[in-house]
Write a structure and sequence with these properties.
3 domains, 2 strands, 2% strand, single chain, mainly alpha, two-stranded parallel sheet, 272 residues
Length: 272
């Protein structure tokens, strides 16, 4: 017995028309998409199909419902037929456009926050899709982190006596600016592109101050790992030891990471 499989895509959605990544979001058929689904039914309804299987996402189910309305052909859904899950990047182009939009009452601080977030999203989206412009997008992000929008690195000066919570509520960023989180992401994106040395440079370019050093432990863990991968054993040992000093009494949720770092440090120290 010969089994014949026929593949069709779901009909056009509003996200398709807007150039958005829908991922595992439901998705709505556009007016053109409804017409596509009708045409699909006209093509396939009388093809002798025994079973229609689609993903369980709304846009696929809706396409099948329109195409095979009134047909006796049985239908099933299978979540294994879902498209790529873009995770945090779902709908990213729309978010980037909103972040790029300037309102008359925007403060310089909010514009700074929006600029770095838009550039970071752009770089992550480009890198995740392995698009040709990924390297250039990462270079733009790198330049923005190093210089800040308009060449101003850290935004307004903030007295060290202010609490981090107050600073964030006032200017939208930590007093040492956006590099707290952006350099970690940049390092991961550089590594994904295969540039380990650029990744190490990014993760070492972190903020550090006595009152606020956000994400210091993750920075140190990544620095140790990347330093070891690029042959900088001395730097790796230094970063790992600093990390372990911060995690001397780890809570259960981070204990596996601490144990892993201890093992990696032991290997580096034992290496002649």
């Amino acid at each position: 017995m010969t089994l014949r499989l026929v593949y069709e895509t779901h009909a056009t959605t509003t996200d398709n028309e807007a150039g958005l990544c829908t991922g595992w979001q439901p998705g709505e058929l556009s007016a053109a998409g409804i017409g596509n689904a009708v045409q699909l039914g006209a093509r396939r309804r009388d093809d002798g199909i025994d079973l229609v299987v689609s993903s369980d996402l709304h846009r696929a189910v809706r396409t099948v419902d329109i195409a095979f309305a009134g047909s006796p052909v049985p239908r099933r859904t299978d979540r294994r037929l879902r498209e790529v899950d873009f995770g945090e990047l779902t709908g990213a182009p729309q978010a980037i456009a909103r972040l790029r939009h300037r309102a008359p009452d925007d403060s310089p601080q909010s514009l700074t926050t929006s600029a770095i977030c838009a550039t970071l999203l752009e770089a992550k989206l480009t890198a995740a899709s392995d698009a040709a412009g990924a390297g250039a997008a990462l270079d733009r992000l790198d330049a923005l982190i190093r210089s800040g929008p308009g060449g101003q690195r850290n935004g307004p000066a903030v007295a060290f006596t202010l609490s981090p919570a107050y600073v964030r509520s006032t200017i939208g960023l930590s007093p040492v600016a956006f590099e707290d989180f952006a350099n970690l992401d940049l390092a991961r994106l550089r590594e994904r592109q295969g540039d380990l040395r650029a990744a190490l440079t990014a993760v070492r370019r972190r903020s550090y101050s006595y009152h606020l050093s956000d994400y210091l432990a993750p920075h140190l863990r990544e620095e140790g790992r990347l330093a070891a991968l690029t042959g900088d054993s001395t730097g790796a040992v230094r970063a790992y030891r600093h990390y372990l000093a911060l995690r001397s009494h780890p809570e259960p949720s981070v204990r596996p990471s601490v144990d892993s770092v201890r093992q990696e440090l032991a290997k580096l120290v034992e290496t002649p």
